[in-house]
Design a protein that fits this description.
InterPro entries: SGNH_hydro, SGNH_hydro_sf. This is GDSL-type esterase/lipase family protein. The chain has 8 helices and 7 strands, in the order ααβααβαβαβαβββα. The chain is an alpha/beta fold and about 260 residues long. Strands 2-1-3-4-5 form a 5-stranded parallel β-sheet, with helices on both faces.
Length: about 260
């Protein structure tokens, strides 16, 4: 009797696991689905404001999430003083900031399909996307890569003459799962850049955030917050280091001089 009961329990558990696995496998990949955030007031206001900034003379676009949106911050703390760095590197380059806090690949796709590519034809897109996929929407490296591929394909389809400077997802201090998926995703992005070098230049700036083989928490602003958050967003100083590291590529693509 006891053996039969244990066998029945094991069979039921196996059936439940198989059912969960099947349902999970059949679940659509949210990373490739255009999803709106227009129900969020601040996001809707920012989207509408950015629509008004889509002028024909735009030559350079930073496209991404809160790390990109932070370029608009002006302190007052030194670690949050991003605007002077933006002005130094991009102030004379007809540049546009299309960064939205909390966006994942699915939200960027929605933006691109709802006006952000309609009236601009920049020479260069700088993309820094994917960190939030490992957060609230919780897609893994392969799923996130599919979303990135869709974004890059859309940029090339709509502006075939433009170049894309594809930045790898930055290191963070969140979890071992995030670390491993960041590593896997960046390897996939490097391969994509190699295979599509006609319009993509891939750059991994992770080394700017490492010290003695470990992620350096001092390169991030989040520990300065009250209450502190896990290190994810670069300080203004670290973001300036990113701008300096990619500047040779930016100047080469735009055909102007090195900005320092």
């Amino acid at each position: 009797m006891k053996r039969n009961l244990l066998s029945a329990i094991a069979a039921a558990a196996a059936l439940a696991a198989a059912s969960w696995s099947s349902a999970h496998a059949a679940r659509p990949n949210i990373a490739v689905q255009p999803i709106s955030r227009m129900s969020e007031g601040w996001w809707r206001d920012r989207f509408q404001q950015k629509q008004r900034e889509l002028r024909p003379d735009v030559q350079l676009v930073w496209l991404g999430d809160s790390i990109t949106q932070n370029w608009e911050r002006e302190g007052p703390e030194p670690w949050r003083m991003f605007r002077p760095v933006w002005n130094r590197f991009y102030g004379d380059r007809h540049a546009l900031n299309l960064g939205f806090k909390g966006d994942s690949t699915c939200h960027v796709l929605w933006r691109l399909e709802h006006g952000e590519l309609d009236t601009i034809h920049p020479r260069l897109f700088i993309t820094l996307i994917g960190a939030n996929n490992f957060g609230h929407i919780h897609t893994d490296a392969a799923q996130t890569f599919a979303g990135m591929q869709k974004i890059l394909g859309l940029l090339h389809e709509r502006d075939p003459q433009a170049r894309v400077l594809l930045l790898g997802v930055l290191p963070s201090i969140r979890s071992a799962w995030v670390d491993e998926n960041t590593r896997q995703l960046n390897a996939m992005l490097a391969g994509y850049g190699h295979d599509h070098s006609d319009f993509v230049t891939y750059r991994d700036v992770s080394g700017l955030f490492m010290r003695d083989g470990r992620v350096d928490a001092g390169r991030f602003l989040d520990p300065h917050l009250t209450p502190p958050d896990p290190p994810l967003h670069p300080t203004a100083e670290a973001q300036a280091a990113i701008a300096a590291a990619i500047e040779p590529d930016v100047a080469r693509i735009l055909g102007d001089h090195i900005h320092r």
